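Consider the following assembly input.
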Amino acid sequence: MDMDELLERQREFAAARDWEKDHTPKNLVMALSGEVGELTELFQWLTPEQAEAAMRDEELAWNVRDEMADVLLYLARLADVLGVDLMAAAEAKIDRNEHRFPPRDRDDAAHDPRPTGGDVGS
Amino acid sequence: MDMDELLERQREFAAARDWEKDHTPKNLVMALSGEVGELTELFQWLTPEQAEAAMRDEELAWNVRDEMADVLLYLARLADVLGVDLMAAAEAKIDRNEHRFPPRDRDDAAHDPRPTGGDVGS
Amino acid sequence: MDMDELLERQREFAAARDWEKDHTPKNLVMALSGEVGELTELFQWLTPEQAEAAMRDEELAWNVRDEMADVLLYLARLADVLGVDLMAAAEAKIDRNEHRFPPRDRDDAAHDPRPTGGDVGS
Amino acid sequence: MDMDELLERQREFAAARDWEKDHTPKNLVMALSGEVGELTELFQWLTPEQAEAAMRDEELAWNVRDEMADVLLYLARLADVLGVDLMAAAEAKIDRNEHRFPPRDRDDAAHDPRPTGGDVGS
């Protein structure tokens, strides 16, 4: 399945259940936020080491895949309702990030006392 | 660009900046949550009508695409770090939802006083 | 109960269960975020009118109070762990907002085509 | 300042700016979520050790207090708009948690291979 097929299946799913009227931009942003909250809850009490090993716990791994799927489904549905091409937007953002954060010299990194952030967002 | 290419570009991006050590599961879940917060802020004071028309405001539309891209980028990066196949997880979830929420009879819907929820998550 | 008593009860609660080691700043920020996600889920599919009437639905009202309590409990616990005086911080922020957003002339408001935002944050 | 005074100042603040119409339950839930996102962004790239020491960095400490204040302000405003007594709800929740999570025997805790969670929410 690629992104276009995913959008198409969601469109049919919503139409068959008469849920299109519920899928307003604000409602979908809230639903996306709620699903990220559920994903967060799976990781909140794990130590960093437990979090790294999360996918070796069968039940936890199932739940992680389930919540990540929900996040993608609502993000994709929101994109479709708004007319946003999600993959094109992501590609454009990576291009911008390449210019905004030039690759670092690793010797510099070794002397940096603060976290670099890995901040490709905001 | 498809999802595999997106993952590959992010892998190279993180490696070139020595950010892999920052990209722990917990940190990426937090980053994803922060980006959804930024997306939420774009819509929070809009009326439902203004939200529907969001993409006709050029500056707002640019910001919506930018924040949605960030959400996808961190979600995809988290999936890569955890070893989750995001598109397969989404497809499996749509399959489960098809069984969990049988299509409604529209006459029933007309008589239902409560929101159906459109709840394909949780 | 005032804020100091709330902090004290949470301190005793965490100590009696040996949960202090789990209550790191990052974990508590994630827990706060998760609870806001649960609160969001209560409202996401409601129409604006249904949301205004939420507290007249007994079951929904109970859940809203329960989730809002959780948000406050984790926010207060985070403040305590970090040594932040939450009420003083809130008072200082209201003072700053009074200067940052001078009261509007209602005639101006009537001519403003865009939402003012009510944005006392960010 | 106590919670009642905070609510009163926010009421006057919103009324003086004609923002009451923006302060619908759904909008305030979104604003709360957005502010928690900003708080999350302050902590997302910090190591657990850096996060513990966050308040010793003057600039970061200022931002943490500022974002925590915003979270409390929107939570309190939402409570006021919905007619929820936030402190009473928090006290009732602590009472329920006392029964739901009996204090642990520390010897048991020592043998528990999984995180206890410290989960006073959900």
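Helices of chain A lie at 3-16, 25-43, 48-52, 58-82, 86-100, 106-111. Ask yourself how this observation constrains the way the partners meet.
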